[in-house]
Amino acid sequence: MHRELKRAGKAVEGSTSVGRSTVRAACGTAIALSACGGAALEDDPTAGPWAEGGEAPPAFVFMSERTGQGDLYVTDISGSRLRQLTFEPAPDYSPRWADGTSTLYFLSDRSPEPGVYRMTLERDTAVFVQPNPAGDEAPRPSPDGSWIAYPATRNGNQDIYISRPDGTDERRVTQSEGNDRQPAWSPDGRTLAFTSFRDRNAEIYTIDVWGGSPRNITRNRSNDTHPSWSPDGEKLLFDSDRPPNGNPDIFVTDRLGTRVTNLTNHGSVDLIASWSPDGRWITFGSSRDGDWEIYVMRPDGTEQRRITRSRGFDGDANWVPAEAVRWRPARP
User: Fold this and answer.
1) Which domain holds residue 183?
2) pLDDT tens for residues 124-157?
3) Which of helix, strand or coil describes residue 94?
4) What's the CATH number where 217 sits?
5) 3-state secondary structure of 252
6) Residue 329 belongs to some domain of the structure
7) With contact defined as beta carbons under 8 Å apart, do 253 and 262 qualify?
8) If we measure between CA atoms, which residue out of 135, 131, 100 comes closest to residue 114?
9) Which of 15, 163, 270, 330 has its CA 20 to 30 A from that of 287?
10) How many domains does the chain have?
11) Measured in Å, how far apart are the chain's first and last C-alpha atoms?
């Protein structure tokens, strides 16, 4: 997914896109973002402006090229704490948390087995799962972690498939002459939202995982991509280049597609949003400050703030439970 983001950044922003070879900064594995030009470390994040009800701020995993290659990091939305999770010379990217489990899935180009890996946030050791069936798009684990969903080319075009995490028991979910991509599980695990090119442009569809007809919920001549469910399963985030801006913004709609609202409404590129587990925050990627960084906002689009601050690409944000993170310095 980070490759897709960088292609979008180059197409729209020109020279503002940051490549892997441009960053060789010695940010290392410092726990404070201030070491990479970010916010200073808070002594007690639960007392900061991001805390609500005395609880620690929500956290998310993301991919960063701040040290020159792609590694995975975890931070919270205060932007005050940072932990490096992977340390491979080859890129690690597209992290996806399996809700209800302690497992993080991600893609890696590491040798000798590039593909899908898994790890927990308590240990820095990653385990190879299987070759990646979805190219540079990460498989999406179901809420209970018992299935993964992914696009795969079996008959000349991409359709959505599900399988067990080890690749067994594969089942085809969609059948279309146009490519179907970017599956997203509903919180109850019964429905997949996905991006489809069956109408020539990109639209957001939903389908019952275990059988049923796909439903177009965006029905727009522009391109609508990257669906993401709200925690209650009643709404979907997506990005779209629909007028009047013509550049990708973050939108929200109800699950039937009857009400659509532009949340970011910005002149730059905003892509790939997702809700925090408590439904109070939304992450998204944006090039609005000259390079690709991660931002957060409220579900109504207010309080848009930049979280990451590095000279390399920061993206592929995916929420993780705050209680699953141990805020300790990463190994040197």
Assistant:
1) 2-324
2) 789 898 887 666 678 899 988 899 999 998 878 8
3) strand
4) 2.120.10.30
5) strand
6) no
7) no
8) 131
9) 330
10) 1
11) 28
